[in-house]
Amino acid sequence: MKVIIDTNGFMIPVQFKVDIFGELGRLGYDEFVVPQAVVNELKSLVKKYRGESRTAAKVGLSLSDRCTLVEGAGIADDVILQLALDMDAAVLTNDVGLVKRLNDADVSVVRLRQKNRLDIM
């Protein structure tokens, strides 16, 4: 099964000490996708942030190399929603606004639960 990983999904390992790839595998996901818009967002966060947030963005950027990169320019949330519909993929995100849009479009959402594991919502 495919899952698209949002920017904040890539930052979970540093912020919450959760192995996102291990957890996604446990949930049955074996294809990881990252839109170019998310990679661009992570790069800008590395420049913008300091401290733990910067480290989280750097680690996220590094983790994105383990995913299949797909083209998609523009606002990351819009790109993610369209890709999820086109690819019939779930999305890993904790972005409340994006979660609402994904739920409205009947797209499976993977979220952080109890700050220590991922779960399908």
TrEMBL record:
InterPro entries: PIN-like_dom_sf, PIN_9
Domain VapC9 PIN-like: 3-115
KW DNA-binding (keyword) present: yes
One of the record's GO molecular function terms: DNA binding
Keyword entries, A-Z: DNA-binding
The keyword DNA-binding is assigned to this record: yes
Superkingdom classification of source: Archaea
Protein name: DNA-binding protein
Organism: Methanococcoides seepicolus
